[in-house]
């Protein structure tokens, strides 16, 4: 295989590096299978941009699966990525009202239904969170992101946002969180 | 009551694992004791998790985009082309495999349908053949049955089978008959002699005499024959048996002599009913085994009195033979126009010389008066 000539990293090593957040491994992985996916998309009435989007989404599926669950691949990583890309592209094609029922396959296809169902649920949650944060507006959004996502301490936040003391910052954070909670759960609970 | 902000703070710390030991204990107790607070903690956990996932994904996207941006797209394109070429080379002028790849599902379906059709058809054919065979067996059986029924009907009514046989081969119909009087009058069944061109009687010794039909009564199925001016016929002085017109009792031991084949055949049984086929009061039902050819034979009781004339049997059940009662023989005889008898009345005797004889001696005497009736007909 051409791929293995260029790299010495095994599937397991790639997955471990991905979970650890290693940039070099991610780059390695990205480069290794992008041509394959691009080949698939280009051969099935897609553009290079489509290829990039589909490939990145595929990697997100893999990444989130690796970081949330313990990933057990029942096939080669290559086959897995190909299968996910293929399914995502089929979905994309059907959304564009094209006949996406028969792709010209070049690789074996693995069963990825469950993973994609999980992915769709995460997608919904992601979109909802993005929407909630957008509606929250500044400075709440940045404050919450700094605290909850980037794990800044209250002290850092007090300084960054120029609050007079940490208690003020805490009150502000509390109010922001309550608003976000309302925004998020007003939709999330309905689902 | 803890205030909301403080609780939210604790949840944050709990999620970040920043609670001190005492705080953690207090927090746990609170959560366990107050379901509302527990629910709020869960919601906050969920919210924070969603935020983290959001952050993680945004971050990951940024990383992917950085890689994408740094990518040498020309090299990637080159590789894609390479891939296509490799695939094509690999595929060996690969349209066949390409087509195979594309239409594999359709082919699979088609193959499945073909298989199902093939085996289904085979199965259907087999089933059809086997059922057909059964039908054949069945109809063959029925044909056999019909054949039997025909031959049984023969003695019941019209000797249909024999008639049918005659249609193929103009030959003889054979039945039995016996002397009414010593001077050559015999009785037999109408169904034996009907449509006859000529009638012959054959004795147990093999002597054949020509006979003519004096009278044929369809209603009682009785026919009177007379030996036709044959000087060779030895006129007897007296018949060994008498005729008993009075009704016989149920259970009466009876026997018969007849010609189901070329030899005279003896059969015995008992009287099982005062009425015949379908309640026919002119006949007895007798449990005696008879075969085609027994028709017209005498039915005698223990003492050797003629109590009936065998006429037929029921095909649907075993051992149900019917014999016309002697009473109706008398009625038939009395109905004969005197012209037909040429003024020679039939002298029937009630006298019976057999009463004290053993059965085999009775038979010896009786069989001389029992004749095979042979009938010749033309093909219809």
TrEMBL record, chain A:
Signal peptide: none
Ranges where the RNA polymerase sigma-70 region domain occurs: 29-98
Any Pfam family hit: Sigma70_r2
One GO BP annotation of this record: DNA-templated transcription initiation
Species this protein is from: Larkinella rosea
InterPro entries: RNA_pol_sigma-70-like (IPR039425), RNA_pol_sigma-70_dom (IPR014284), RNA_pol_sigma70_r2 (IPR007627), RNA_pol_sigma_r2 (IPR013325), WH-like_DNA-bd_sf (IPR036388)
Name of the protein in question: Sigma-70 family RNA polymerase sigma factor
Keyword DNA-binding: yes
UniProt keyword terms in alphabetical order: DNA-binding, Sigma factor, Transcription, Transcription regulation
One MF term in the entry's GO annotations: sigma factor activity
Gene3D superfamilies: 1.10.1740.10, Winged helix-like DNA-binding domain superfamily/Winged helix DNA-binding domain
